[in-house]
Design goal:
The protein has ten helices and nine strands. The chain is of the alpha+beta class.
């Protein structure tokens, strides 16, 4: 039976390997911000067209393998949500090649990707004053030996960015049912919606999971007193001092798509007269038109 690259990464997750690292944590020097020179893995925010192309192609490759996507000329997987001003994509590079990526979409007037099939579940959160965000486009090269470490760090960066920069209270993700157990046991997600067919990924079954950050913070304080007695990977998240450094770096390095990038990635949609009623596209056109005018005034 064929297993996708992500399934293989999750399946190979070794807690013993990371317990050894945890025990040595006090002896190790602080990591270079968003990088690990010992493994030649560098972590950063995707900030230009080259980074985005590599990230989108890695996701496309994974989705083609899982039959979630149909072949496309661009060989990239992305959507209008990737162009939202606050959308942030994190990447892991080895030898200048993107080997891991994850994206966080912040809730806005365009809603979230999962609203497409889980709108009622997400709206119930909004109605109680919660601030949701969605994790999308997680992909890791299955041939990279550092895959487990990349997975943990990418989730850590998403958690920091959502909580600290956007006051997110709930991190959501749609996953294949066979991955639900991992997210519940290792990352403390809970199921929010019923099993549904998701047409955007070839009609594959999808489950909406939610990570309540308030509850997670409370749990994290408890388990950090005895991190080796938990099955979660939360103890492997960065400590407070490292988090502050990472947060500062994220703030300084984040760049949303430029008007030129927006045109590059969405030229087909922009030139299609049938898309004139697309509210999301219309919102982005107005945003990037304004951004372009601002840039011209500053030039």
């Amino acid at each position: 039976m064929y297993k996708s690259s992500l399934t293989q990464v999750l399946g190979r997750f070794s807690r013993n390997e990371y317990e050894k690292k945890l025990l040595k944590k006090q002896e190790e020097s602080s990591q270079v911000l968003l990088g690990n020179p010992n493994d030649n893995i560098e972590f950063s925010v995707a900030k230009d067209v080259a980074d985005r192309i590599q990230a989108y192609r890695l996701v496309y490759k994974l989705y083609i393998e899982k039959e979630f996507a149909t072949p496309s000329k661009s060989k990239m997987w992305y959507s209008l949500f990737d162009a939202n001003p606050n959308t942030m994509t994190f990447i892991a590079k080895k030898n200048d090649k993107v080997v891991g990526t994850i994206t966080i979409v912040i809730d806005s007037i365009t809603n979230l990707p999962a609203d497409h099939i889980f709108h009622n579940d997400i709206q119930n959160l909004r109605n109680t004053g919660r601030v949701p965000a969605e994790i999308i486009s997680l992909a890791i090269d299955k041939d990279i030996k550092e895959a487990q470490e990349i997975l943990i760090k990418l989730f850590n960066f998403i958690y920091i960015a959502g909580k600290e920069l956007h006051s997110v209270t709930d991190l959501m993700i749609t996953v294949n049912p066979k991955h639900v157990s991992f997210y519940k046991k290792r990352l403390l997600f809970n199921q929010l919606g019923d099993l549904k067919a998701y047409d955007k990924v070839g009609g594959a079954d999808a489950v909406l999971l939610n990570l309540n950050i308030d509850e997670t913070e409370s749990t994290l304080k408890k388990i950090m007193n005895n991190p080796l007695k938990t099955k979660t990977i939360l103890p492997f998240f960065t400590d407070h001092e490292e988090k502050l450094k990472i947060l500062k770096n994220i703030k300084n390095s984040f760049k949303s798509m430029s008007p030129a990038e927006f045109i590059y990635f969405f030229k087909d949609q922009l030139s299609d007269s049938n898309n004139t009623s697309d509210k999301h596209l219309g919102y982005l056109k107005q945003y990037y038109d304004n951004a372009s005018n601002t840039f011209e005034l500053m030039s």
